[in-house]
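Batch queue: ligand-bound targets. Current item pairs a single chain with zinc ion. No template structures supplied; prediction is de novo from sequence plus SMILES. Inputs echoed for audit trail.
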Amino acid sequence: MRVLVLTVTTLAVIGSSMTAVRGQSPGSSTPPPQIVLRAAQMLDVRTGEVTRNAVVLIDGQRVSAVGSELAIPPGAQVIDLGSATLLPGLIECHTHLMARLRSNEPYYGQLVTRSQAARALEGAASAREMLEAGYTSVRDAGNEGSGYADVALRDAINNGLVAGPRLLVSTRAIAAVGQYMPFGISPDLEDRLTGAQMISGAEEGRRAVREQVGYGADFIKIYADWQYPTLTVEEMRVIVEEAHKFHRKVAAHANTPEGIRNAVTAGVDAIEHGNRPDRETLQTMKQQGTFLVLTVGMFINALEAAQSEDQRAAVEKGMEFFRQTIALAREAGVKIAGGLDAGTAGLHGQSVHQLLALVKMGMTPLEALRTQTVDAADLLGWADRVGTLEPGKFADVIAVDGNPMVDIAALERVLFVMKGGAVVKQLPAVGDSTPINNTHKKQVR
Ligand SMILES: [Zn+2]
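Prediction returned. Tokens below.
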């Protein structure tokens, strides 16, 4: 009998190859059946072209062919989606699955009343809601004090234990000492829980990156500012250097012109929110390939909640501000992605508000869609596996009632969701008298 000796080097190689197939469930000896999706139309989010009488052929977890009126292989399972439009699964680029703050609950309440186990389970509920809304990949931008529960959730989803999108997680996030939530807590409380890992100095930043990557972070989230610029350029430069060494990208929360400039100077890969970047910084972002990750979808919630013309006008004014930022970023040629930035219970299934807001702020429906499909895949470093419906990519597919190129709100009517060749949601075909929204809510809750 041969004794298998696993050296440390062998284990490292196995580990890296496992990382490469992360997101796939364990293989089986019998080949899975072929599945054929049929629908009246399919949108190519890269070109804007619409294919009529669309057919998507799926072999196991991946797409094997797409086109119009393709021949159906014998023995294949056919799913006919009628008059719906097929699209690639959507990608949420900025959310907080583990944060389900209730209204009237202070941030600190979430930290001190819920165990890490409870937070992980709450994250699982958010993940399911997001998947059922059509989001098959999610970049989680900081887990708000839930330790490494997001790593556990990511792995549980990949192992088929719970339903959820493919996750890219950033774990604890990094902020300057005293410059992130919770604020207003007594200094007498030693070792109090915090919403991010607090550092002071470049070497503490380096150590935080090493810890977070060591415990499973897929990328690093930092806070370049809060009300004012916080981490220094030097601190962020070392964080970026250390993260890039491990092939991890760095995302910087930045909402002040100086904070954005500092983070871009330090070489981060993405600016989150990006309120008020100056023209020169946008030019540098274009040159460096830095993404702008917009989070403007909550304006739609605010518009829906407005109870008077005055309130509505105030929201419109805020939207006007971002309309200008978006126009400047597009003019400069900066890559744009986005997410809703959900952090409270009930919002995680509403990520499509981000796309509705982008269209209200001047983007075409196709441009908006790209920020949560093909361009989002580029941001995640997953352009080879998700973001478009093409042979070789994961069969992450949604079908919506209507044509989002004409009416972006069609994306609120997700009838069908498939992730990696497995159907996770299928509502009655279009034309059925069942009210779609009500059915959807029944399924989600
Ligand atoms: Zn956020």
